[in-house]
Amino acid sequence: MEENRLTEKTAIITGANSGLGLETAKAFAGQGVHVILAVRDTDKGQTALEHIKKEAPGASVEVMKLDLSDLDSISDFAEQAKGKMDSLDLLINNAGVMVPPFTKTKDGIELQFASNHLGHFALTGRLLPLLLKAPASRVVTLSSLAHRGAAIDFDNLDGSKGYKGMKFYGQSKLANLMFAQELDKRLKQHGLPTISIACHPGISATNLFKFGKREAPRIFKRLMNRYFQPAVMGALPTIYAATEPGLKGGEYIGPDGKGQRRGYPIIETPHKAAHNEAVSQRLWEISEKLTGVSFNFTN
C-alpha cells in the first residue's frame, strides 16, 4: 500500500475487534487511515484499539457500536457516522458469524442471513450517501469459499422449514458475493465512481468458529493453527481489494494457492452460482423488503 494514497482517508470496518477485521484495521491505521472499528462489543473494540495504537502509536482509531443482527442498531450507527463525517472512503463489510445454533434475530430473521448479508446490505445502503461524497470510494464485502455450490432458498430464509448451519452459512456467503456484484453493477449503471469488490480469505485461523458462548474444541484450534493460514495472511485479499489501484469494481479477490485456501491475493472467478442475474435481482429486492432500506444512487 502506498501511504500517500491512504493518508487522511476514513475506513469503517465491521467486526474489527479480532481476526481478519483487526488485521485489516492494523494495516490501514499504520498507513494513516482514520479507522472506525464497528463492533458489537465495545469493550473488545477498545482492547483492539489499544492493541493497534501499541503497534502504531500515531494511529487514528475509534470504536463505534454496531450490531449487524439488529436493524435499529444499524440505523443508529449510520446516523452517528453521518454526524461525524462528511464522506467515507472505505467500507469493509467484514463481520460474520458461522454455523451457530438455529437463532432468529429480534427482527425475525435467521441469524447468519441477518448478520452476514442483510446487516451489511442495510449498512451499505444507509452509508451510501457518505461513500458517494468521497472520490474513488470503495465497498469491500467478504464472501467465502463456502459460496461454492450454495443456493439462495427464498422459500426458507428464516429457517422455519428446516435449518442446517453450514447450508445457511453458505447461503449467506453467496448472498454477500451476489450483493457485492449487483451493487457494483448498479453503481456503474448510474455513472458513479464508487466501486464494489468482493473478496474471501481462503481458510484462515480466526475466531469465526464460535458457537454462541461456546468455543471450538481445543484440538480443533490446534488443527486450525497448523493447517489454516494466519489471519494476517487471510486479511490480504481484503487489503488488496480496498487499495489496489488497478481494480475497476466487480472483481472477486482471493488467495492464489491450491484450492484458493491460502496464499497471496489474485483476481478469481466465482462459482457459477454467483452469476445468476435473476437470483441477484430477486435477492436485492427481498433484501430491501426485509431491511426497509432502499439505495439512493443520486450523487
Automatic annotation (TrEMBL):
One Gene Ontology molecular-function label: oxidoreductase activity
Gene3D superfamilies: NAD(P)-binding Rossmann-like Domain (3.40.50.720)
Domain of life: Bacteria
Pfam families membership: adh_short (PF00106)
Entry keyword Oxidoreductase: yes
InterPro entries: NAD(P)-bd_dom_sf, SDR_fam
Keywords: Oxidoreductase
Coiled-coil ranges per UniProt: none
This protein's name: SDR family oxidoreductase
Organism: Planococcus glaciei
